[in-house]
């Protein structure tokens, strides 16, 4: 698991560096990653009612922490 996380971090760092180089088109690779995320989470959806009622929607602390990380401006 650690190797996969390191590979993802390295891939993200490479994509950030390449965004500064206007001659590199990372859109196709990014779209593949977005589609992978959509496919991965397609079954992880409940009705809107579930998410709007705090007593039903109680994500684990790890999920809240992860959301905090990805909401930072540096991500």
UniProtKB/TrEMBL annotation:
This is Uncharacterized protein. It comes from Puccinia striiformis.
């Amino acid at each position: 698991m650690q190797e996969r996380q390191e590979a993802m971090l390295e891939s993200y760092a490479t994509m950030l560096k390449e965004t500064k180089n206007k001659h590199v088109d990372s859109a196709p690779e990014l779209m593949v990653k977005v589609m992978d995320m959509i496919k991965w989470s397609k079954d992880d959806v409940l009705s809107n009612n579930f998410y709007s009622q705090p007593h039903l929607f109680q994500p684990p602390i790890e999920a809240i922490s992860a959301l905090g990380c990805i909401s930072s401006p540096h991500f």
